[in-house]
UniProtKB/TrEMBL annotation:
Organism in which the protein naturally occurs: Rotaria sordida
Top-level taxon in the UniProt lineage: Eukaryota
Domain Peptidase S1: 39-272
Single Gene Ontology BP annotation: proteolysis
The name this protein goes by in its record: Peptidase S1 domain-containing protein
GO terms, molecular function: serine-type endopeptidase activity
UniProt entry tagged with the keyword Signal: yes
CDD domains: Tryp_SPc
Keywords, in A-Z order: Disulfide bond, Hydrolase, Protease, Serine protease, Signal
Length: 284
């Protein structure tokens, strides 16, 4: 795969776009601002800028995840399948790998019942924390979940193709390359599912979507982490979960993400509504 006062996000270099949000928002706003540049590959994230991004450690893998409430983490099914809840450790509130202002254990794993490991369809899971997070911690915050009508979802892709989205994670810096110790961030664009870089690798576009930019992608170790968009209500919203892909940043293949908007009712049912929607889910 910066900083400031009232939690503003700066994306781009030549044509910089600044997104400011209120750090008192109930979701989708961290303590400090983030600055994103258009460098190839990605860059280190600023401190206290993505407070919902957590690191998951299992006996055999490293993944990401997102805090959606004090007791719930949203991640990818393939990250936690085959493990017991007590084998997973959650590191929250830090940009440095395997550290956290809060380190927690998991009491329950809920994997989507229709997850297919061969196609990564329904690659989504929820983790119930053994003890809730202290959400007054300035290093920790919750990301908003989308509230998108079934009419919009059935009419076409959401997020729509060409949307600017941001991924964060501790995954490899390049295909087969080294893994960073500091959280990385990268800006990519959503891709039409009919595009040549997406159509041959997505199995079900209603629940999966593609995103990429030249030389930019998520990679091994980023799985389960957030793909985020900024809304017109000035909040960050979880639009995707990093799922799979062929290689990393290959020009002929986009990255594949789980389409969170397709799982609104599933998340609500399993968490008993323990998450927050933004004031608006319209993308900025």
């Amino acid at each position: 795969m910066g900083n400031g006062g009232s939690s503003s996000i700066v994306i781009g270099s030549n044509s910089q776009r600044t997104y400011s949000c209120s750090s008192s928002a109930p979701c989708g706003c961290s303590t400090k601002s983030a600055t994103m540049t258009k460098i190839v590959g990605g860059e280190a994230a600023g401190l206290q800028t993505w407070g919902w991004a957590i690191l998951l450690r299992t006996p055999s893998s490293l993944c990401g995840g997102s805090i959606i409430s004090a007791s719930w983490i949203l991640t990818a099914a393939h990250c936690v399948r085959g493990f017991l809840a007590n084998q997973i450790t959650v590191y929250a509130g830090s940009n440095i790998k395997y550290t956290g202002s809060q380190i927690l254990k998991v009491s329950a794993i809920i994997i989507h019942p229709n997850y297919f490991s061969s196609t990564y369809v329904n690659d989504i899971a929820l983790l119930k924390l053994l003890n809730p997070l202290n959400m007054t911690d300035p290093w920790v915050s919750a990301i908003c979940l989308p509230s998108v009508s079934s009419a919009i979802l059935s009419a076409g892709e959401w997020p729509p193709p060409g949307a600017t989205v941001v991924a964060v994670g501790w995954g490899r810096l390049s295909e087969g390359g080294s893994s960073p110790s500091i959280l990385q961030q990268v800006t990519v664009q959503t891709i039409d599912y009919r595009s040549s870089t997406c159509a041959r690798i997505v199995n079900d576009w209603s629940v999966q979507f593609c995103a990429s930019s030249p030389g930019k992608d998520t990679c091994q170790g980023d799985s389960g982490g957030p793909l985020m968009a900024f809304t017109s209500s000035k909040q960050w919203i979880l639009v995707g979960v990093t799922s799979t892909g062929i290689g990393c940043a290959r020009p002929n293949y986009a990255g594949i993400y789980t389409r969170i908007a397709a799982y609104q009712s599933w998340v609500s049912l399993n968490t008993i509504g323990q998450f927050t929607n933004p004031t608006s889910s319209t993308l900025a």
